[in-house]
C-alpha cells in the first residue's frame, strides 16, 4: 500500500511538472469534465454532494435511498475558459462505456470538438466506463484529443469547486427541493446560471494547483 501511494505521488508530481508552465492559451483548449452525485436530506432539506471512489457508477449510486434518508442523482458536466457544457443528468441504470459514448461523448464532447476544432483537449478521469474500448475508438474516430490524467486526483480538477458552488446555490434557494425531480430541475437551472467569471478563474488556477501539488510532494493540494 505504501508503494502504491508513493507511485501515485510520483505520478501527480510528474504530471504537474509537465503542465505547470502551460500558458493561458494552452489551458483555454481544455474541456474539464467530471461526474458528481447530489442528494436531498429529508430531515433538513440540505443538499448533499458526495463521491464514492470506485463505486459511483453502480446502479445503486444513480438513484437510491441511503442512510441519510434522501434519494440521489448522478450528473455530468464540463467547463472551459470561455464556456461550459449543458448539465447532463443520468437516468436510472449503470453508466457503462456505451452509455458514456451515447449520452456524453456524442451529444456533448463532439459538439465542443466541432465548435473549437482539433485544438480541443478533452479531460476526463480514469473511471472504468471512461476507459473502455468503445470509448477509445469513438474518441479516435472523432479525432478528439484526450488529456493524460493522473489516477485518483480530483484535487487537480477545477470542476470539483463547481460542484461545491452548485450545491450551495441549491441550498440558497427560497424553496429547497423536496424530491429528486425538483432537485434535477434546480441543478440544471443553477448550472446555467453559474458565473462564467468563476469558471474562468478556476481554469486559470491550474498553474497554482500544479505548483501546490509539487510543493506537497504529490500529496493532496489545498484546493
In short:
By secondary structure, the protein is an alpha/beta fold. The chain has a single domain, classed as Ribonuclease H-like superfamily/Ribonuclease H (Nucleotidyltransferase, domain 5), CATH 3.30.420.
Order of helices and strands: HHEEEEEHEHEHHHH
What's the CATH architecture name?
2-Layer Sandwich
Q: What is the helix fraction of residues, given as a range?
A: 40-55%
Q: Describe the biggest sheet? A: 7 strands, mixed
Find the CATH topology. Answer: Nucleotidyltransferase, domain 5
Which blocks of ≥5 consecutive residues have pLDDT under 50?
A: 1-7, 42-46, 50-69
How far apart the termini lie comes to 25 Å
Strand content: 5-15%
Q: Number of helical segments?
A: 8
Number of separate domains: 1
Overall pLDDT confidence = 83
Topology:
Layout: H1 2-19, H2 24-27, E1 30-40, E2 47-50, E3 72-80, E4 83-84, E5 88-89, H3 97-116, E6 121-123, H4 133-141, E7 145-146, H5 159-171, H6 180-193, H7 196-204, H8 206-215
Parallel strand pairs: 1-6, 6-7
Antiparallel strand pairs: 1-2, 1-3, 3-4, 3-5
Helix pairs in contact: 1-8, 3-4, 5-6
Protein model, in words:
The protein has 223 residues and is α/β, with parallel strands linked by helices. The protein has one domain: Nucleotidyltransferase, domain 5 (2-Layer Sandwich), CATH 3.30.420. It is built from 8 helices and 7 strands; from the N terminus they run ααβββββαβαβαααα. Strands 1, 2, 3, 4, 5, 6 and 7 form a 7-stranded mixed sheet that branches. The radius of gyration is 18 Å and the shape is globular. Residues 1-7, 42-46 and 50-69 have low confidence and may be disordered. This is Transposable element Tcb2 transposase. It comes from Stegodyphus mimosarum (African social velvet spider). GO terms for molecular function: nucleic acid binding.
